[in-house]
Design brief:
Elements lengths: L7 E7 L3 E10 L2 E11 L3 E3 L2 E3 L2 H17 L6 E5 L5 E4 L20 H6 L4 H8 L8 H10 L4 H4 L2 E4 H10 L4 E2 H4 L5 E2 L4 E2 L1 H7 L9 E2 L3 E4 L3 H7 L5 E4 L4 H7 L8 E6 L2 E8 L6 H5 L3 E4 L5 E8 L2 H12 L6 H10 L20 H11 L8 H27 L5 E5 L6 H11 L3 E3 L4 H13 L6 H11 L3 E3 L4 H19 L1
Parallel strand pairs: 1-6, 6-14, 9-12, 15-19, 19-20
Antiparallel strand pairs: 1-2, 2-3, 4-5, 7-8, 10-11, 13-14, 15-16, 16-18, 17-18, 20-21
């Protein structure tokens, strides 16, 4: 087997709609990265329930490792990041008890309110500092116990999605900190599980694993995996395995006075902090405290993202009208500005049967004109998202007192010029766009930290600024956006009544 290059790493970045394997080399203070494999993902429906086919994803990871060997790009280490909150259960023999449920499954509809009857909302937030979303692991576990799923009595171990894939690779069970922090089961002040919550929902805390920091080397691939892939000598690293944790690690900021938007299926908007912010005001505004690298905390809010646009495209395609993104965005740019605004985080948009119909219903209910073309729908979505970013920016200032001078948009949304331009206009702040592959790059840089090649988050950001070209957008038409912001707040109030 060829000797591995000194500083080569392999990252698997797996999202709700697809995954990719990225090979990267760090040399001379610069990172060069290349995609070596891409594969689809998506929810699998079984008996009307939404699941993730983790066995297929594990196969894709092994194929990506094999591809790296075949292409002569043998890494020192491998890291995996995915979304948070979803999990798999193992029995006493370490076997998977069925496919993991997907967070968009409807079994958690109403689960939050049921749990609040047992333990008050205020107490849960005081323990965890996590934004209330019906698909958080806390509510998923409650629903599983409530519904008496057969897997629950047999469960001996719970592993979140990236931890489960790491286990399948190595046989090592551990919960990586950034992913564990999204569950609404962990105290961010101690970095430990909160036993009171497990008692409240009737689930034994003993099924949880030791929480390990990002950058922990879990071990080498298990013998069958090593034989199948040819990567027996690589370390498997628990990176910042929650995808937003990896993405925020890759924000190419020059100082601390920034907010970030990790823009993809979701928009995750927030700031970095050295300590959690758990106050009555952060509870009122529903902000979350999630783990970051090097002891940082991500103070952020989950906002609907480009899922809205993609779901519209899928609905149109199902009706026989394929609208490629390359045509949709110019049509949005040419559409009438501010014709229709909606609340992009309204619960009706979480899992509608038809996204265009759901958006039309929200607009109609708020007294707004109903979008009448694909371009008008796209413009409505992008303008509404940009105005929600402004609202979130103001709220971040209220809870943190932080002086924010720049917004960094990272992830796939950084390539959406219209969204970046609207965000600069709505917030009145300059927007720096990129890198688009921030999640995979953050994954890689945490691997480099685990090897001692990088020491601090500041060094990570310096390397990324030197390695990738970034977009710059300055605010335009600020008075117009100011007026539309007041209208947007009124629209949200009317649809929330």
């Amino acid at each position: 087997m060829p000797r591995p290059p000194k500083d080569r790493f392999l990252a698997f970045d797996i999202g709700a709609s697809g995954g990719r394997a990225i090979s990267a080399t760090l040399e001379g203070g610069k990172l060069s990265a290349r995609e070596i494999r891409r594969f689809p993902n998506g929810m699998t429906r079984i008996d009307g329930r939404c699941h993730w086919d983790v066995t297929r994803l594990f196969g894709e990871v092994k194929r990506g490792m094999s591809d790296a060997v075949r292409q002569g790009e043998i890494p020192l280490s491998v890291g995996i990041d995915t979304w948070g909150v979803d999990y798999g259960l193992l029995d006493g023999a370490g076997r998977l008890l069925g496919l993991p449920y997907a967070y968009r499954d409807r079994r958690t509809d109403g689960a939050m309110e049921e749990v609040f009857e047992i333990i008050p909302r205020e107490d849960i937030y005081a323990l965890t500092g996590i934004q209330f979303l019906q698909f958080n692991t806390l509510f998923q576990l409650w629903a599983a116990a409530r519904d008496r799923l057969p897997s629950m009595p047999a469960a001996r171990d719970l592993l979140f999605m990236p931890d489960l894939l790491n286990y399948l690779l190595t046989g090592v069970k551990a919960s990586e900190y950034t992913c564990a922090s999204t569950s609404q089961l962990m105290d961010p002040r101690t970095g430990r599980w909160a036993p009171r919550l497990f008692d409240a929902i009737g689930v034994p805390a003993g099924i949880m694993q030791e929480i390990v920091p990002p950058g922990t080397v879990l071990g080498k691939p298990a013998r069958p995996v090593a034989a199948e892939t040819g990567l027996g000598g690589a370390d498997i690293v628990a990176v910042a395995s929650h995808d937003t944790g990896s993405a925020v690690a890759a924000v190419p900021a020059v100082d601390d006075a920034f907010a970030y938007i990790s823009s993809g299926t979701w928009s995750l908007m927030g700031i970095e902090s050295r300590a959690p912010i758990i106050t009555p005001k952060s509870l009122e505004l529903n902000f979350t405290n999630e783990g970051g690298i090097a002891g940082t905390v991500r103070i952020l809010k989950n906002i609907m993202g480009l899922w809205l646009l993609e779901q519209c495209r899928q609905s149109w395609a199902a009706g026989g009208a394929d609208v490629p993104l390359e045509a949709l965005l110019p049509a949005a740019a040419a559409s009438k500005p501010f014709r229709s605004l909606v609340d992009p985080d309204h619960p009706r948009l979480l899992h509608p049967d038809s996204m265009p119909e759901a958006l039309s219903g929200l607009a109609r209910g708020a007294g707004e004109p109903v979008p009448d073309t694909p371009g008008a729908f796209a413009r409505c979505i992008l303008e509404s998202l940009a105005l929600r970013y402004r609202q979130t920016l103001e709220e971040l200032g209220q809870i943190s007192g932080a002086a924010i001078r720049t917004i960094h948009i990272i992830g796939g949304g950084s390539q959406n010029e219209l969204l970046c331009r609207f965000t600069a206009g709505a917030t009145g702040l300059p927007v720096v766009a990129g890198p688009a592959e921030a999640t995979a790059l953050g994954n890689i840089m945490v691997q480099a930290m685990a090897r001692g090649r990088i020491r601090t988050p500041g060094e990570i950001r310096q390397v990324l600024r030197a390695s990738f070209e970034l977009g710059q957008y300055l605010p335009e038409d600020t008075p117009v956006w100011d007026a539309q912001y007041r209208r947007f707040l009124d629209v949200c109030r009317r649809t929330g009544e």
